[in-house]
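Hi R.,

Here are the chain sequences for the assembly we discussed:
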Amino acid sequence: MAAVSRIQLQKCLQNIWSTNSSLKTLLCGSSVSGEYQRRWASQAKVKYPKAKYGGRSTVTLLPGGGIGPELTGYVKEIFLYAGVPVVFEEVKIDPSSDSNEDLENAITSIRRNGVGLKGNIETRSLSTSVMSRNVALRNELDLFVNVFHCYSFTGIQSRHQNVDIYVIRQNTEGEYAMAEHESVPGVVECLKIITREKAERLAHYAFNFARKNGRKKVTTVHKANIMKLSDGLFLEVSREVAKHYPEIEHNDMIIDNCCMQLVSKPSQFDVMLTTNLYGTIVSNVICGLIGGAGLLSGGNYGDHYAVFEPGTRNTGTAIAGKNVANPISMLNGAVDLLNHLELDHHARILRDAIMKTVNEDQIHTPDVGGSATSTDVVENVLKHLAQNVKPGLVF
Amino acid sequence: MSMLFLHLSNNSMLGLMKETGHSILQQVTPTIPEGKIGCTIIPGDGIGPEMMQCMQEVVEATGAPVDFETFFLSDIQYRLSAKIDDVVASVKKNAVCIKGILSSPVSGEGGSLNYQFRQKLDLFANVVHIISIPGVPTRHKELDFIIIREQTEGEFSSMEHETVPGVVECYKIVTEEKSRRIAKFAFDYATGRGRKKVTAVHKANIMKLGDGLFLNCCKEMASLYPKIKFENMIIDNCTMQLASNPHQFDVMVMGNLYGSIVDNVSSGLVGGAGIVAGASYSANTVVFEPGARHTYSEAVGKEIANPTAHIVCAAKMLHHVNLKVHARKLFRAIDKVIGDGKKVVSTARTIYRNGGLSRLLFGDGGGLCGGPPARSILIKFHCWFAIHGAQAVFPTGLPRLCSVVCPH
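And here is the predicted structure of the full complex:
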């Protein structure tokens, strides 16, 4: 009896194994990424010396897919022209490949250089053993926070002016834990993971950020009325941390209400503290308010590394190569990069040139209601830059 | 004159951008504002001052907007010497410096000026690019490798004492932090220049702890650079290999004393101290200096020393401060003048006879090639710039030497 049942069980398992591809990929996939994470876990804490020699910093450049290569190309050109003391180490990632080798090269390169600038990276492969590259990059480098500055441009017509919000988003856990499985056929479970440790680290980052940048208020965005434990913990931790920063006002808002408030009265927000999924929703809503995806940039920070990218993570494959993509978001990413490298002079002149182009000259690409091409915009930025470029290395 | 060069540099900048592939700039004609680069100069001892003079004249001939701040720093003529702190402040301000060789007296105690200069600026990495220059006769042809030397610790710690009479101890210090830093520098340098292999040179079989630590740090860093091959070699074998089969080397990384020896052995391979240029890097500054540390004081005033190393240093400096147009012009001149200087002079002489070049440059027009090296090389440079200075900024592609030395 026992023997029969063991055989039956074995058969049954084999059946499940061969037919249920999701289980297979769950087990294989998790073991691949588990091994991967173990391998890097020990290294994530080591801080290597910065790749800055003779005043020149090396920065990893990941052009990514879609419009990424065009936009990073403009950045390279502008840096060359303005004499920015940055050397790019370019790492290309083949989007259709199933192997993670390119991605590993990219991650190692950022580990070496400490800083990266990236376009959005496509993950075309549907195999679950291939991680989403954007998510993998953030997890492997422990880039636990995404800081996204949303502000309105006077030169761009939009429903709301005077928007100036920082969205501080949890970047490495929450809904994007990449732990999904089909427990029985037709039932899929996706784990949303909130840990006290990471929530605390993020909340401290947000309040510190507010303090350093002279901000007055932090709003925690959550759905703790439904997800009482997970979002409950996130909210509880942010309330606890808020007590350490008495000069900064703290309130909280439920995500659905938050989206409505953003659309109707965005000026009530200052710094927003969100989990992973809510962060992406909130930042996209604000982007919509002030004129679209092509303007703003975001920075991903960890303890040792920083990666900058256009704010909303769209690949823009449809408009690639047509010379209509808005280069402003990537250029703003470059400004963030320069600020991070403490190249204040270059950051300032590039920021000025961008603002003049968008607000005064109103050279706009079609996505923000203009008719200029990408190169028109870049040329105009260069024209303004030219008046401030000094020869040689300026620190 | 300077306006002319600024104008040229604008056009060439656009040319430069077109070379990079994205030629979006047809309509824009941006103007680069007037302004000059500051560069600290430390002439050094021996033939240093003469060589610096040569170098400055050549840099001026390229039209590069550079202001030189000269500081005479010397251990042997210490009463004439500038204060080390002033020099360091100037280098920090300018971020670039061209330095001759300082002689360090054998007697006396404490750190030499060289030592203090490196420590105060934290010039941890010395890079010497050993490259054969066509036209210089040598035993091995077409050498091209890079020696990277840690120069803030190791044997040159300046910590020596006599414990009991007749017994002297000298500390060799190796720290994990600095070993990691130099190893990472070597791998970063190799990555940035598309090199394939890094060789760590050590004596870890004897100094198991000191050199062992250095070697382990190199191994650890190598794991971050999967595309670069990593090897190690014991210093004594390394010097033999350098003399017999130097082509096997690509990038070499080593401690302080080994670096000093290997630099000089390798410089000898390609034509000596007058040919080889080097540079010392800290995080924020670069000091360009000849690769082999030799003051050549017996040649002072005889105009027989070779200024090529100093001129290559200047070209590298121009490249580093983004005056790439002028740097490439100078590299092209070096290619031509050192490689085929006689032709340059004979062309110039023909132009002179036809009334195209000034009498000032040419004097009586005779005996230019046969003179002592310094003078004749300088005159050849002047001839080259007189012929090509204004027009031939960008014929096609990079100058050969430039593509090897400064590939970016």
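The two ends of chain B are 28 Å apart (CA to CA). Chain B touches chain A through 48 residues (CB under 8 Å).

Let me know if anything looks off.

Best,
T.
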